[in-house]
């Protein structure tokens, strides 16, 4: 098995979303986008970083004694030494692992995959930012006949998408905003490569479920839904769309990372708004499901 290392920030067991059946979710660290509604901000930076839980702190001073720069925020090296906290008030998010180490975690749950029709979902962050690591894991899963899904923003080099496409059983592909300028304003990047990569996968007959995070005031307007629906309807074999209701459950993570939450005042979509969006997309012959 490949010895290439990757950086992950979580491996979640017994998940029932993000693909069929009972699944293991492997969260890759690093993402090229900065979506204002991101609920996994700890997955954005490519390197390990420190997350703080002030309510757990008992003032014992163990972190300061362990830190090589005395908890100086300016000189912080994100080495993780201060995370040796007896109460878990400091946590280093992200660790370097080999494909073999991840597979040992995955293989413990094969019986659950077999019984439920489940498997493994590689998420993030953005898995396409670590293409060699992703390919090594996909190869290992294929050898063990484990179903694989890749949850992606689609923002990756076309060559990297092509290199892993044959090994992916299911793509869970986000389409956030169709208009390029608005996409750039809300995510920090153009969506051209995202749309091109989706067209490539659809043309080769890949199994793709398009997922739209529905954020009131950002992408729930009729013009965006119509343009998105028409585009998806024109893709070969892509007929299922999942509407993912925006939620603010990740807002506390920003505070723990020392960042401001960009959508502090954004409301969650109502049932009426979700139903209206689903009906609008359904006008293009798409099967729309609320939730993922």
Q: Can you give a write-up of this model?
A:
With 292 residues, the protein is of the alpha/beta class. 32% of the residues lie in helices and 21% in strands. It has ten helices and eleven strands. Helix 8 (222-233) crosses helix 10 (271-282). The chain is globular, with a radius of gyration of 20 Å. The model has no long low-confidence stretch (mean pLDDT 94).
Q: CATH superfamily membership of the largest domain, which one?
A: Aldolase class I
- Give the number of domains: 2
CATH architecture of the largest domain: Alpha-Beta Barrel
- Tell me the name of the CATH class of the largest domain: Alpha Beta
The Rg value, from CA coordinates, equals 20 Å
Poorly predicted regions are none
Q: Total number of helical segments? A: 10
Helices and strands, with pairings:
Elements: E1 6-15, E2 23-28, E3 49-52, H1 62-66, E4 90-93, E5 95-97, H2 99-107, H3 110-116, E6 119-123, H4 131-143, E7 147-152, H5 158-165, E8 170-174, H6 180-187, H7 192-203, E9 208-214, H8 222-233, E10 240-245, H9 251-256, H10 271-282, E11 287-290
Parallel strand pairs: 2-6, 6-7, 7-8, 8-9, 9-10, 10-11
Antiparallel strand pairs: 1-2, 1-5, 3-4
Helix pairs in contact: 2-4, 4-5, 5-7, 8-10
Quick rundown:
With 292 residues, this protein is an alpha/beta fold.
Structural descriptors:
2 domains, alpha/beta, TIM Barrel, two-stranded antiparallel ribbon
């Amino acid at each position: 098995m490949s010895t290439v290392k990757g950086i992950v920030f979580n491996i979640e067991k017994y998940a029932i979303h993000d693909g069929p059946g009972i699944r293991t979710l492997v969260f890759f660290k690093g993402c090229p986008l900065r979506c204002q509604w991101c609920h996994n901000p700890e997955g954005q930076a490519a390197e390990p970083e420190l997350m703080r839980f002030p309510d757990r702190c008992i003032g014992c001073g163990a972190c300061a004694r362990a830190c090589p720069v005395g908890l100086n925020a300016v000189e912080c090296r994100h080495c993780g030494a201060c995370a040796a906290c007896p109460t878990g008030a400091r946590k280093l998010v992200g660790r370097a692992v080999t494909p073999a180490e991840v597979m040992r975690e995955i293989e413990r749950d094969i019986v659950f995959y077999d019984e439920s029709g489940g498997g493994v979902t590689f998420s993030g962050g953005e898995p396409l930012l670590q293409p060699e690591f992703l390919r090594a894991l996909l190869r290992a899963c294929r050898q063990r006949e484990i179903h694989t899904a890749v949850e992606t923003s689609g923002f990756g080099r076309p060559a990297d998408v092509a290199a892993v496409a044959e090994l992916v059983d299911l793509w869970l592909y986000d389409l956030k905003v169709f208009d390029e300028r608005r996409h750039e304003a809300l995510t920090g990047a153009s969506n051209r490569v995202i749309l091109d990569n989706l067209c490539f996968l659809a043309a080769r007959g890949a199994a793709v479920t398009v997922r739209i995070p529905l954020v009131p005031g950002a992408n729930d307007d009729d013009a965006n839904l119509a343009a998105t629906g028409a585009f998806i309807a024109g893709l070969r074999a892509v007929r299922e769309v999942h509407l993912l209701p925006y939620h603010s459950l990740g807002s506390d993570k920003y505070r723990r990372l020392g960042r401001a939450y960009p959508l502090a005042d954004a409301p969650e979509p109502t049932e009426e708004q979700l139903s209206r969006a689903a009906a609008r997309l359904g006008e293009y012959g798409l099967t729309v499901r609320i939730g993922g």
